[in-house]
Amino acid sequence: MHNPFSLENKTILVTGAASGIGRTTAIECSKLGACLIMVDCNEAGLLETLNLLNVLPSGKHLLFVVDFSDVEAIENFAKVCPLIDGLVNNAGIGGKTLPIQFINENDLQKILSINTIAPILLTQKLYKKKKINKGGSVVFTSSIAGLSIANSGNTLYGVTKNAVNAFMKGAALELASKKIRCNAINPGTINTPFINKTSIAQEDREKDKAIYPLKRYGEPIDVALGIIYLLSDASSWVTGIHLIVDGGRSLI
Fold it and tell me: Active-site residue 127, yes or no?
């Protein structure tokens, strides 16, 4: 049966694959025939994800434990990474909820190192080492916080995602000569362990959820299927875009 979203014979690298959007993306990619390379700092979480993947008829999925706050670790991983057809730059952290007057250098450097510097360097190093096959696709997990939505106390997170969006556009232009596409997916709030680690009270979450036209937060699968579209040949003429998946939140 014809399936334009098939990932058969493609090798897909997913960062932040130990939980949340990254885990669901890896699972859904495996269902569509992809061979997965999964990277995270959480080895136990990676092993849990591995156990949820479709078994390959030949070959095997690969796991790498990498600390994305460590530039040398990213360099070392890029050296040993096999050739890939798709890269999902998904690993990230939320950071603290901080009004501007309480922003400090340590918090700023921590969130920038993982959310912005890591995906930029990983993409650059894999491209420079010719690890991304011609016709490949690079997808950045960004956020509507990096586009038009601003929330008090969430400024640092928005800064990191704005930077990712800008890098994606530049990369889309430069890598096009090698037939490599670059796009970003920009979700609204997604039900993942990520949001459960924040200090926001449940009552405030319910009020925030009510603002969404579709009256719910997204689920990881909502984002994962958008990522798969951008990885697949169905989007072969799509590069440099922001795919907004936010239940209509950016309309408000």
Answer: no
